[in-house]
Amino acid sequence: MSAAEPVILLGAGGHAKVCIEVFRARGLFDPVACIDPYAKENNVLGVPVHRDEDSQRAFLDRGVKWGFVAIGQNSLRAKLGADLQISGFRLANAISPRACVSPSATLGRGILIMPGAVINAEADIGDHCIVNTNAVVEHDCRVGIACHVAPGSVLGGRVRLEDEVFVGTGASVTPNNVIGKGTVVGAAAAVISNIAAGVTVVGVPARPIIR
Ligand SMILES: CC(C)(COP(=O)(O)OP(=O)(O)OC[C@H]1O[C@@H](n2cnc3c(N)ncnc32)[C@H](O)[C@@H]1OP(=O)(O)O)[C@@H](O)C(=O)NCCC(=O)NCCS
Fold first, then answer.
1. Are residues 109 and 75 in the same domain?
2. Does residue 84 share a domain with residue 173?
3. Which residues are in the PglD N-terminal domain (predicted)?
4. Sign of the alpha-carbon torsion through 91, 129, 164, 176
5. Is the distance from CB of 132 to CB of 151 less than 8 angstroms?
6. β partners of residue 118
7. 211: CA distance to ligand 1 center in Å?
8. How many CA atoms lie within 13 Å of 19's alpha carbon, on the beta-carbon side?
């Protein structure tokens, strides 16, 4: 019999798939359901899908204590994560056994850390964050709530991401820079200065997209 704690996932798309594999690889949590009213499939990697939003309550009533939001979109992940906690669930962390997390790093709740990710000394990762495959969060970084550091991207030492920042695939941020709330850094961009809140920047060096 498995000693893993049952956990429900909100979301049943591609992102849920990778979260399930990380939970299974780690072995601390056992995904027992994906809840998603818009799901296209009836199971995700063998985990049954429930479309009825009341099913959250039913799992709680059956003694499932742990929940996790498996949705890539930052603001929605933050909102649903907060809602799960209000409903009475504890937020699980999905941390790959193939990630390298410093013992001096601080980790929030409801986070996903994918294989190959590196989180270095005294970095701080906020609730609901994703540190994706092979991403690097260097020493003393402050990553706010519900950020996504996408595959292969690199945050240099002491970088600060305010809440809900998205750093695209293969982008990099040089040390000490601050990226404002909700900003999107495009794939492969190089951020070499502070960036304001609520903008999208692309290119090398990164500049705002002018629409
Ligand atoms: C930056 C980004 C969010 C912009 O998306 P968008 O708002 O839909 O913008 P558009 O695709 O309309 O592009 C607008 C302009 O920016 C340019 N642009 C878009 N992304 C760019 C990038 N990463 N680098 C350089 N230029 C880029 C486009 O060529 C276009 O230029 P033009 O106006 O001269 O034609 C998106 O292109 C991107 O890089 N997303 C990251 C995806 C990712 O890493 N996902 C990881 C999932 S795990």
1. no
2. no
3. 7-80
4. positive
5. yes
6. 100, 136
7. 12
8. 33
Q: How far apart are the CA of 185 and the centre of ligand 1, in A?
A: 9
CA distances from 92 to 63, 111, 179, 194 (A): 15, 8, 27, 32
User: Per residue of the chain (211 residues), what is the pLDDT tens digit?
Assistant: 468 999 999 999 999 999 999 999 999 999 999 999 999 999 999 999 999 978 999 999 999 999 999 999 999 999 999 999 999 999 999 999 999 999 999 999 999 999 999 999 999 999 999 999 999 999 999 999 999 999 999 999 999 999 999 999 999 999 999 999 999 999 999 999 999 999 999 999 999 998 7
3-state DSSP call for residue 181? coil
CA 104 to chain centroid, in Å, comes to: 20
The SS3 call for residue 142 is strand
| Active site residues per annotation | 139
Q: Are 104 and 192 in a shared domain?
A: yes
Are residue 11 and residue 75 in the same domain, yes or no? Answer: yes
Looking at ligand 1, which residue's alpha carbon is closest to its atom 48?
150
Number of domain units in the chain: 2
Within a domain: residue 206? no
- Whether 104 maps to a domain, the answer reads yes
Where does ligand 1 bind, in terms of residues with CB under 6 Å?
132, 150-151, 168-169, 184, 186-189, 200, 202-203, 209
* Residue 174 belongs to domain with CATH number: 2.160.10.10
